[in-house]
Design a protein that fits this description.
Elements: H1 32-37, E1 41-45, H2 69-77, H3 84-96, H4 111-140, E2 143-148, E3 153-158, E4 167-171, E5 179-186, E6 195-199, H5 201-204, E7 209-213, E8 234-238, E9 250-254, E10 260-262, E11 267-268, E12 273-275, E13 279-286, H6 292-296, H7 306-340, H8 369-387, H9 396-413, E14 427-428, E15 442-445, E16 452-463, E17 466-468, H10 474-483, H11 489-505, H12 516-521, H13 527-542, E18 547-550, E19 557-560, H14 564-575, E20 578-584, E21 587-592, E22 597-606, E23 614-620, E24 626-632, H15 634-637, H16 646-661, E25 664-674, H17 676-690, H18 693-700, H19 706-714, E26 719-730, H20 734-743, E27 747-751, H21 756-765, E28 776-780, H22 788-815, E29 831-836, H23 837-843, H24 849-856, E30 859-865, H25 869-882, E31 888-892, H26 898-903, E32 906-910, H27 917-920, E33 924-926, H28 931-968, H29 982-992, H30 994-1003, H31 1009-1014, H32 1020-1023, H33 1030-1054, E34 1058-1059, E35 1066-1067, H34 1070-1091, H35 1098-1120, H36 1131-1136, H37 1139-1166, H38 1170-1180, H39 1184-1190, H40 1205-1208, H41 1215-1218, H42 1227-1234, H43 1237-1251, H44 1269-1282, H45 1292-1306, ...
Parallel strand pairs: 15-27, 15-31, 27-30, 28-29, 29-30, 31-32, 32-33
Antiparallel strand pairs: 1-8, 2-3, 2-4, 4-13, 5-11, 5-13, 6-7, 6-12, 8-9, 9-10, 14-33, 16-17, 16-26, 18-19, 20-21, 21-22, 22-23, 23-24, 24-25, 25-26, 34-35
Helix pairs in contact: 2-4, 7-8, 7-28, 9-28, 9-30, 10-21, 13-14, 16-21, 17-19, 20-28, 22-24, 22-43, 22-44, 28-30, 28-33, 28-34, 29-35, 30-35, 33-34, 33-37, 34-35, 34-37, 42-45, 43-45
Length: 1440
């Protein structure tokens, strides 16, 4: 939601009239020069006057006001980039007012339906914005306590009255009205510590409390009363307003005091809630639109579904079609004028009156026919344009919006994706992407909190080279099961005891059983080892950001942690007798198992971030020793260790690797003893750098800065203590969900910050990866690939190895027994890529990226380890921007997933343990990953299919209505005469055909819900754009055009005279035909809808009946009142009494509906798709037992998604693998290839790249998935043929045929297409000339077109016979290659050349010697005889 300013005086700048603004010039996009002029924000405290003007605290989040609603909404509604159809009809309305071309008496009648659409959109926009206005009014009028400097007391005021520099009093559990800096607190205890707690749930969704502190220089200001606030005078120098909610940089300089740093721990942000203090006094520093929460409310990326993008393209094509039709009409008018003008001289064009028709009785001597025809053509063109303006449906957008609204409601109301434990329903935040959920091809998922619960348990640890903790995790069990490994009885027993022990002790976030560690803590392995254990748990108990909250009612200590890892480690330390109980005034307290408390003074804390990947804290122990405690990822901690620890490091790393294989999250734990003098010097430098605004700015920008350098100086020479291992369990249903999504054809990428071993085992447990014997895992990690040359070589080798496996598989299929079934899934071993963050940096270089992209398209799964948030975004953009036809979905639960979520086509946030940042940035919000299965496979597919039908039908019905008038123009001299009633035209899209299609878009289901989830293959149609593409769309357009022709022509021959107008004579008028045709348009379009609808609930039938009946009712009403349309007066009444009218209606309905009726019947009977079969099972309740016998479906073919040409062109090294370029251009080249096995292998690889997937040879895009055993054999046989795997004993024709087929496949013309069109182009295009086999030989099916029909004769008959033979085998037998003798035409042409050569005395040179020709002719004759024998042998069975 973008935040706009308001013109109210309350939102104007506050301060003196002549004061400069506090913000830099050109805000919010200041230049560097602007920032140099005003680098910081300066605020005066107390009675000192302000020197700048600041924004007030009055805010507005609404888009409109009552003054700008109309112009702003209309500007949005007629934006050509978003609402092209609205702009189109606005132009049409303007054209209707031009007298020379109007067909509506210069009345813009199209404004009526257009106004209806705009008003409906306006109502939705107004209702949505009204809710924002109410929320703004409540916020601005909220009450707060403001300190009155004059009266020296607290006064009540509204939020909108706050100004920068005001002192306010915030009470416990009150919402904070602006961004403020804490001056002092009134705590519940007697000791003033300046601590306050804040709940940031409304800001970032996190439920844990966060500690904030008052400034040290002002902490005691209000101890003696609030009047002391008048004595505070000074200046705050701070950063300019920004939207980064977890940082703040500034300083405060009070009169007579030293400068003090203001960091994020001293700030309370607007929208948060104060907790655990009586009240807090604070000074306002940011108000209104300058607060962080308001600046964070930026508008999310405007995402448009691919279906809507395609609609925009199809609208342009429809407009081109309309232009073509109008041009034909204009040409027809000119031709008619040329032919008829001599007889109809009264239709001449007179220049004397400008652009008016003029009837003259005497021929004009100045008459110019060329000008006449030219002007007439232009006028008729625009006349036809207005006549058929409804080609583009005016109701398209409002229908889509209404349907999407109900679809979103069904998603949110679905109890199957409602999480009862947390009372979290699925939330639709961007309903414009509803249908995009049904087309997802790639899923990019975070791991922690997305696939796992993000609820951590302390499970194991390694201390001083000794591993502690028994049992085995669920992830390890799943990985062992899939790998075929057995788990030892000791591990299983340890796991059982760990669970029992955890239940007995009821320790949160601890699942532990290993009694030996308790003995070692008291010296069982010696005092040195015991001290290491104590140091280890001391680090866990102190090095964290957890806040202990003391519950007065129960006396318990409740931990509030921003990181679940920290909470688990602190709970683990408590479990072993090192309980963290308090942190006050820089003193942290640990309660030992003996009952004694040990205090540690916190001298400095360097917090964890995604760049450092570690956290450190410096403490002073009670004996005065200074120690540094540090924990972090092993990748950053190992280089910081001091020497002479190699053996311990090796042992610890082995333990960490073992933990990672069990799916545990590991951290390395270290310490360092510090020299007091050295630390004092270091600490002074660090404090000086931390108050330097320039260094703070550099740190925020992520560039080199002094603070990070000093941190590296401190965090070195570390002593290794050990490592921790915590468990993050998989969410329920994750493996099943991933398995079903993969079965649907969706590729899943998991991007996580875990170690490689952890990520691999979790991916195996999720069924994303398979063991090595079933899936080739290509692991690119470590320093081995940290160079561009090595990375490039690895990727190229992986690509080549995959292509070689494809070629080997093709060869194995040739050698296999074709009478036995072969499992195609096991022919080629699937690939999976595992890559870590450092290697990914190199792989994303511009010259390496294309190879990475190419290899990932051959992978079933990709796992990214140790990746940063920005790398997640890069991975999504890599696929989205460079792969054709891809639809990406990103899902995550934390702030580090926001960039990835916003970069994907569809972003899904999980409302988990890491706050609501991901949800706030997402398009859809769910509570559990497993709900993604139902959201995509059920709701997504339903929405995509319904919206596809809705869009196609809306265009279809408008074309049927519009182009009918064009066909009628053939009977009116192309005059463009309209024969519909204007009222009928305007209500056609609003009343007669609007509501039935909307009900279809909301409720229609082709397959029952349970089957959609049981057979995820059904989802594949969406990935392949099977329901809405150019072919499907224009098939509806073509059907509408043909049916409009039938509607226009048939009444002309069947409609007889009508008794009309109360006279005694009979006529059949233009309006009789028009009313009849319009009736047929309404009936045919509604019939078409019923033929394409699967479910017919009673309300859908009632809606169709009412829609059709409304035409009969309004038709009678419109023609019964002369003032409405005098030309159609009593026309409809006469038609209702005309028997031929009632005979014409069913006749046309049968003619228009028969095609759909018989085609759909044929398809269901002979070529059923999976959803047809499941629909019949559901409709007739066949039962599970019979269903199990009847249905055996193979997975659908993978969608052809290849990198764009711009990416392929960059991969010169493997161009031979990526391009299906024919090898050689003559027989010598072919012979060389025949003798070169390596070249032949590369050729087959090229063919493999061109063919891409085996199933595509047999199945057209988006069609059926049912295979019989014979179908599998046919596919294998066909694969063998296409790859050229035939035994020809080195014949010359083999190589030429392979080359020719490689070229043909690359062009998209492959034998075995669903139907072979008879005929040839000029009698012989694409006929295979060479013999391919010794035994059973094959020739490619004939590829030709209708052009060859023009060359009818013996050649056409010969070629058509060959084509029909290929058709006869059908899809189940593929396209067998049959030899073909020389056609009669070819023979005649050869004889003619020989005759002419003899006449000219020239000798015709043969290309091959006579002996070779004779041998080939004999072989061809023998093969023809064998083929004829086979056909005769098959004839009886075929007849039977």
């Amino acid at each position: 939601m973008s935040v706009s300013s308001n013109s109210s005086p309350r939102n104007s700048m506050v301060g003196g009239k002549d004061l400069p603004p506090s913000l830099p010039g050109n805000w919010p996009n200041p230049s560097q020069h602007d920032l140099d002029e005003r680098p910081t924000r300066n605020i005066h405290l107390g009675n000192l006057p302000q020197t700048f003007i600041f924004n007030s605290n009055f805010i507005t989040t609404s888009k409109f006001t009552k003054y700008n609603f109309l112009p702003k909404f209309l500007a949005m509604c007629f934006n050509p980039h978003k609402k092209m159809a609205n702009v189109y009809f606005l132009v049409i309305a303007g054209m209707q007012t031009i007298p020379i071309i109007t067909n509506t008496a210069s009345l813009p009648t199209v404004l009526m339906p257009l106004s209806f659409v705009v008003v409906v959109d306006g109502i939705f926009a107004a209702l949505e914005d009204y809710a924002r206005h109410e929320a703004d009014a409540r916020a601005n009028a909220s009450k707060t306590s403001i300190y009155d400097m004059d009266k020296r007391e607290i006064a009540e005021g509204e939020w909108a009255d706050l100004k920068v520099g005001d002192f306010i009093q915030i009470h416990n559990r009150q919402v904070i009205p602006a961004d403020v800096v804490i001056i002092s607190c009134k705590e519940k205890g007697e000791i003033t510590e300046g601590r306050a707690y804040v709940e940031t749930k409304s800001l970032d969704g996190e439920t844990n409390l966060k500690m904030r502190r008052a400034l040290k220089c002002t902490m005691n200001t209000t101890n003696d009363g609030l009047a002391n606030l008048n004595e505070l005078e000074g200046e705050i120098e701070m950063e300019h307003p920004n939207k980064i909610i977890d940082t703040f940089r500034g300083t405060i300089k009070l009169v007579g005091e030293e400068k003090e740093v203001i960091d994020f721990s001293n700030v309370l942000l607007r929208g948060c809630i104060l907790r655990n203090v009586d009240w807090a006094m604070a000074v306002v520093v940011n108000t209104g639109l300058d607060t962080k929460i308001m600046m964070s409310n930026t508008e999310a990326p405007n995402k448009i579904s691919s279906l809507e993008q395609r609609i925009s393209k199809e609208i342009k094509r429809i407009v081109l079609y309309l232009i073509l039709v109008c041009a034909l009409g204009a040409i027809g008018a000119i031709v008619w004028d040329i032919i008829k003008m001599k007889e109809a001289y009264y239709l001449k064009w007179s220049d004397s009156l400008g652009l008016d028709w003029w009837i003259v009785e005497i021929p004009d001597p100045d008459y110019d026919p060329t000008t006449e025809f030219f002007l007439s053509g232009i006028v008729q063109y625009f006349y036809f344009f207005l006549l058929m303006a409804n080609f583009v449906p005016v109701s398209l957008y409002v229908s889509m919006s209404t349907v999407k609204f109900f679809q979103a409601h069904f998603i949110e109301a679905d109890l199957e994706i409602y999480h009862e434990e947390t009372d979290t329903p699925t939330k639709v935040r961007t309903m414009a992407l509803n249908e995009e959920l049904g087309q997802i091809s790639h899923i990019f998922s975070d791991k922690t909190g997305t696939l796992t619960c993000n609820i951590m348990d302390f499970r194991k640890c390694s201390v001083n080279g000794v591993s502690y903790g028994m049992g085995v995790t669920e992830i390890a069990k799943a990985a062992a099961f899939l790998n075929g490994e057995e788990i030892s009885e000791d591990d299983l027993a340890g796991e059982a005891m760990a669970r029992e022990h955890a239940q007995m002790h009821k320790q949160d976030h601890v699942n532990w059983y290993d009694q030996s560690i308790r003995f070692d803590l008291v010296g069982a392995k010696g005092d040195e080892h015991a001290q290491k254990l104590q140091d280890f748990f001391t680090v866990l108990g102190l090095c964290h950001s957890v806040i202990p909250e003391h519950v007065e009612e129960t006396g318990e200590i409740r931990l509030s942690a921003s990181s679940p890892d920290d909470e688990a480690l602190v709970c683990g330390a408590k479990f072993f007798g090192f309980e963290f109980v308090d942190r006050t005034n820089g003193i942290a307290t640990l309660k030992k198992s003996s009952g004694e408390n040990e205090e540690f003074e916190i001298l400095e804390m360097i917090e964890f971030n995604s760049t450092r990947k570690r956290m450190s804290v410096v403490v002073r122990k009670q004996n005065g020793d200074l120690e540094l405690y540090c924990k972090g990822a092993d990748t950053v901690m190992v280089p910081l260790l001091k020497g002479d620890q190699e053996k311990l490091l090796e042992t610890t790393c082995q333990h960490m690797t073992h933990y990672a294989k069990e799916g545990l999250r590991t951290l390395m734990i270290c310490k360092r003893v510090l020299d007091a003098e050295w630390f004092e010097e270091w600490h002074n430098e660090y404090k000086e750098a931390s108050v330097d605004m320039a260094e703070i700015e550099r740190k925020l920008m992520g560039v080199e800065n002094k603070m990070d350098k000093l941190a590296e100086v401190l965090e070195c020479k570390l002593v290794l203590l050990g490592s921790s291992a915590i468990e993050d369990k998989l969410q329920d249903g994750v493996p099943e969900c991933i398995a079903d999504l993969a079965a649907a054809g969706i590729k899943i990428w998991v991007l996580t910050g875990d170690k490689v071993e952890t990520a691999i085992n979790i991916a195996i447990a999720c069924q994303l990866l398979q063991p090595n014997e079933y899936m080739e895992q290509v692991v690119i990690a470590g320093s081995e690939f940290c160079s561009k040359a090595k990375m490039k070589k690895k990727l190229i080798d992986s690509i080549r190895e995959y292509e070689e496996d494809c070629a080997t598989a093709a060869s194995d299929m040739e050698d296999a027994d074709m009478s036995a079934e072969i499992d195609l899934d096991n022919v080629i071993k699937p690939r999976a890529l595992v890559i870590d963050g450092p290697c990914l940096i190199i792989a994303m270089e511009e010259d390496i990226k294309p190879y990475l992209l190419q290899f990932t398209q051959n992978c079933k799964a990709v796992v990214g380890c140790r990746v940063s948030p920005d790398q997640k975004r890069q991975m999504v953009e890599l696929v989205r921007s460079n792969v054709v036809g891809v639809k990406t979905l990103a899902i995550g639960d934390g702030a580090n997933d926001v960039a990835m979520i916003q970069a994907a086509h569809v972003g899904i946030g999980i409302s988990g343990q890491e706050g609501m940042q991901a949800v706030n940035a997402s398009d859809y919000a769910i509570a559990q990953f497993k709900y993604l299965r139902r959201l995509l496979l059920l709701h997504g597919r339903y929405n995509y299919r319904r919206m596809s039908k809705l869009v196609c039908y809306i265009f279809y019905k408008n074309i049927v209505m519009s182009i009918t008038q064009f066909w009628f123009a053939f009977n009116t001299g192309f005059s463009g005469q309209k024969f519909y009633f204007e009222g009928g035209i305007q209500m056609y899209n609003i009343l007669y055909t609007c509501f039935p299609i909307m009900l279809l878009g909301i409720f229609d289901t082709d397959v029952d819900q349970k089957y959609l989830l049981k057979y995820p293959q059904l989802y594949n149609n969406g990935i392949r754009d099977a329901f809405f593409n150019s072919r499907v769309f224009f098939s509806w357009v073509f059907t509408g055009t043909v049916e409009s022709l039938i509607i226009s022509i048939v009444p002309l021959f069947t409609l007889t005279n009508s008794f009309s107008r109360g006279t005694d004579w009979e006529i059949s008028s233009l309006w009789d035909y028009g009313a009849t045709s319009f009736t047929l348009v309404v009936l045919v379009t509604n019939l078409k809808l019923m033929l394409n609808q699967y479910q017919f609930p009673w309300f859908c039938l009632v809606c169709i009946i009412v829609s059709v009946g409304s035409w009969f009712a309004t038709g009678i009403m419109m023609t019964s009142v002369m003032e409405v349309d005098f030309r159609g007066y009593k026309v409809y009444e006469s038609l209702l009494n005309n028997y031929s009218y009632w005979l014409t209606l069913p006749l046309v309905l049968v003619l228009c509906g028969s095609r759909d009726f018989f085609y759909k019947g044929f398809q269901r009977a002979f070529k059923p798709q999976l959803h047809h079969v499941l629909g019949e099972i559901s409709r007739w309740d066949l039962g599970e037992e019979k269903e199990g016998e009847a249905l055996k479906f193979d997975p659908p073919p993978d969608p052809r998604m290849v990198p764009r040409k711009s990416v392929l062109s960059k991969m010169e090294d493997i161009r031979d693998l990526l391009e299906a370029t024919p090898v050689g251009g003559n027989n010598n080249a072919s012979n060389n290839i025949a003798n070169n096995e390596e070249a032949e292998l590369e050729l087959m690889q090229r063919v493999r790249r061109a063919s891409r997937t085996l199933s595509d040879f047999v199945l057209p895009k988006g069609l059926g998935y049912a295979f019989s055993a014979s179908d599998l054999l046919t596919i294998q046989e066909e694969r063998k043929i296409v790859l050229g795997q035939t035994n020809t004993s080195g014949r010359r024709g083999k190589r030429a045929s392979i080359v020719e087929m490689a070229s043909g496949i690359g062009a998209g013309a492959v034998g075995g297409v669903t139907a072979v069109v008879g005929g040839v182009v000029h009698g012989g295009v694409a006929v295979v000339q060479e013999v391919v086999g010794v035994g059973e030989t094959f020739v490619g099916g004939v590829f030709g077109g209708v052009v060859g029909v023009g060359h009818a004769g013996e050649a056409v008959i010969d070629e058509t016979v060959v084509g029909l033979k290929a058709v006869g085998t059908g899809i189940k037998r593929a396209s067998r290659i049959v030899t073909h003798a020389e056609s009669s035409r070819e023979k005649a042409e050869r004889e003619e050349r020989e005759r002419r050569g003899k006449e000219l005395g020239e000798v015709v040179v043969e290309e091959v010697d006579e002996e070779e020709d004779e041998e080939e002719d004999e072989e061809e004759d023998e093969e023809e005889d064998e083929e004829e024998d086979e056909e005769e042998a098959r004839a009886p069975s075929t007849t039977e």
